[in-house]
Amino acid sequence: MGPPHPQLEPARLLNSFCSVEKILQCSCSFHGIPTPSVHWWMDGVPVDVNSGHGHFQVTSTTLGPWDNSTLSLARDPEMGTVLLCEGKNQHGIHGLSILLMSRRGPLAPQIFLEALLRGVVYAAMAITLLFLCLLPFIVKLLRTKQAKKCAQMREQKNSVAETDQGSHLKSREPRKSRTKLPSEEQL
């Protein structure tokens, strides 16, 4: 009796990741029996390992039922670029689509400046509207304070005037003088 035959398995994606340092690297790990082959597609076009045009490089490692493949992209991808890693054997196909976004698109500085300018304009409009809404309350508060000050000043003037009038009246009152008549002394 010969060695047992391994059970046949379709290709399955078991691990994937993308990282960006100086270059973009995406990896996919497929498992299957027989060992799956991995292919990369960029925007629906197969990536030819031999014709990378200096922009990308594909490295693959096969170990038993595993095929690990890494795509390295030397330049920033265009906005919305779709990568597809696909593992395939005669029992099945499994793949993963990756949507790439550019870190430094040509419009990024312009979009940032436009957004910053809009933010400044909207903030200025909001502050102006807030001030205009609060203006009647501020005016009312200032008028109330001014009216209170005027009332206090009137009260002080009135009390000073009353005090002055009272002291003048007392000093102007005629004094009663008493002279004694000689007849009164005798009584």
UniProtKB/TrEMBL annotation:
The keyword Transmembrane applies. GO terms for molecular function: sialic acid binding. The keyword Transmembrane applies. SUPFAM superfamilies: Immunoglobulin (SSF48726). Residues 165-176 have a biased composition (Basic and acidic residues). The chain crosses the membrane at residues 119-139. This is SIGLEC family-like protein 1. The gene is LOC110299485. Residues 153-187 are annotated as: Disordered. Keywords: Immunoglobulin domain, Membrane, Transmembrane, Transmembrane helix. One of its GO terms (cellular component) is plasma membrane. InterPro entries: Ig-like_dom_sf, Ig-like_fold, SIGLEC. It comes from Mus caroli (Ryukyu mouse). GO terms for biological process: cell adhesion. It is a single-pass membrane protein.
